[in-house]
Request: fold
Amino acid sequence: MAALSAFKAIGRGLLGAAIGLAIGWGLALLLGAAIPADDATIRKPQVIIAVGYLFALIGWLLGVGLWSGWAREWLRLPTMELTETDWRRYFRFSLDHKVIGLQYLVTFVVLMLLAGVLALVVRVELATPGEDILGADGFNTVMGLHGIMMIAVAVATITGGLANYLVPLMIGAEDVAFPRVNALSYWIVPPVAILLILTPFFGGFDTGWTAYPPLSVVNANGQLLFLLAFLTFGLSSIFGGLNFTTTILKLRAPGMTLMRMPIFVWSVLGASLIAVTATQFVAFGLLMVILDRVVGTSFFDASKGGDPLLYEHIFWFYSHPAVYVMILPGFGIELEVISHFSRKPLFGYKYVVGSILAIVFLSMIVWAHHLFTSGMQDFLLIPFMATTEVISIPTGVIFLAALATMWRGRLRLTTAMLFAIGVVFNFLIGGVTGIFLADVPTDIHLQENYFTVAHFHYTIMGGEIFMIMAGLYYWFPKITGRMFSETLGKLHFVTMFVFFQLTFLPMFWVGMQGMNRRVADYNVEFGDLNQIISIMSYLLGASFIFMVINMVRAWFGGERAVGNPWGARTLEWQTTSPPPVENFDAPPEVTGDPYGYGTPEAPAHSSPATGTVGN
Reply:
C-alpha cells in the first residue's frame, strides 16, 4: 500500500495530462477549422500538437501537486499538508529543497547515462565510412537528442540538483526563498523528457540541438516536439534562477556576509543571474519558430521579409552565456573540493569572486563568435573576436586560483579530488583550443569540423561532467548518509580520464584534416582513426559502470557517514548526514572564513542555541 500511495501524485498528474490533452485536442480541432484549405494538411497537425501539449502540461502540473499544494490557496481553500518524511516524498510535489535536489539529481544522472548511450549509437554509425545503421535522418535525430539531453544535464545537474540540496545548507538557511516555485521548476522537467523521447515517433528532427530555421520550420513534426520541450525547459531554468538569486541575497545566516560565502554559492549566484537575464531570449526565439510552424508567421522566412540570421543572434545571445550557466557552478565545485582537500585557504578568493561577476557580464557580449561563418557584417568580426579573447582573462584567474591553492598544499587524493584535478587538465586543453575558435581566420577553417567537436567536449564533458563527478563524490556522504568505496571511485576516475583523452584528442587531428561534423558519412581516409575513436568511446561509456555500481551499493548498504567525514569548514558539513528537515538543530551564526585552514583558534561558525563552535 505504501508503494501505491507513493505514486498517487504521479497517477493524478498523468490523469490530469490526459484530460488536458483531450481538452487541448478539442480546442485545436475547432481552431483547425479556421485554417485555409491549402494550408490545412501541414498546419492542422501542428496546431493539434501545440495546443494539446499546452493543456496537457497544465493538467500534469495541476494533478501532480500544483492544485492541492498551491493553487487551492488562491481560492482560499485549504491546501494539502506535505508531511511525508519517508521515501514516498521523492515521488510527489515536495517543498523541501533537499527532496527537490535529489529529484533533480536522480533524474539528470539517469538522463546523462541515456544521453551517453545515444552518443555510443552515434559512434557505432561513425565507426566506418558509409551510412550503415541509422541513415542520415536517423543519425541527425540521435545526434540532436544526445546534444540537447547533455546540454540539459550540464545546465540542471548542478544548478537544479547539487545547488538545490546544498546552497541553503551552505548559507545557513532553512529552505529556498520560494519553495513552491522550486517544486514547480522540477515537475516541469518530466514532460520535457517525454517529448524528447517521443520525437523519433513523429519523424524525428534533423537540425541538431540548435534548431536553425528555415529547416526547423518546415521539417517533420518531431521538430515541433523538440521546440516545445526546449521552451519548457527554459521556463524551469528561469524559475530556478529567480529562486537562487533571491535565496542567496536574502536568506543568509547571521554573520554570513557576501565575502564569507563559499565559492560554490558565488558560482551558483553568477549562473542564476545569467539564467534569469538570458534564458528569456532563447525562449522568445523558440516561440517565434513555433509560431512560424503553427500559426504561419514569417519571422524567419526570407521570401516574406523574415531573416533566418535573426534566429542565430537570438539563440546564441542565450546559448553562449548558457555555457557559463553550466561551467560557473562547476568551477565552484572544483574550487571547493581543491581547497578542502589541499587543506589550504582558497587562493585569491576576492579575485575569484570578481572573476565570476566579470564572466557574468562578459558572457553577454561574446555570442556572435558563433556567427563568424554565417554571413555576419565584416565590421563586427574584430569587436566580437576581442570580447571573446577578453573573457578568457577572468576564466584564467579561476584556473590559476585552482593551481595556486594546490601549490604546496597537503593534498588528499580522494576520488573527488582526483576528478577536480582532472578538470584542471581537461579545461587547459579546452581553453587553449578555444583560442583558435575565437580568432576569425582560424575559426573560419575549423568551425564546421571535428576540431570544434573535440574543443566543445573538452570544455563541457572534460570540464562540466568531470566537475559533476567531483561534486557527486564529494557531497555523496552528506546527501545519502553513506560512504562509498574509494577503490571503485578511483577506478572510475582512472578509466574515465584515460578513455576520455583517447576518445577526443584524435578528433582535433581529423578536424584539422577536414572531417566535417554533423554528418553520418565521411571520406574513407578517416576510417581507421574513426574506428579507434569509436572503440575508445565504448570504453569511456563502460567506465560509468563503476560509478553506478559504487553509488547504488553505497546508498543501500554503505558504511554510515558522520556529519563531517572530510573535516571541511563550510556550513553544510556542520550538521548531520543527511541533514534534518530544518537543516540545523539551531540557527547557525557565521564568525569566520570558510577556508581558514591552519587557524583553529578562529572558528568558522557557531550555534547560539547550544554555545558550540566549529571549524
The chain has two domains: 8-93, 94-572+584-611. The beta strands are 482-483, 559-560, 589-590, 605-607, 612-614. The two ends are 45 Å apart (CA to CA). The chain has a mean pLDDT of 89.
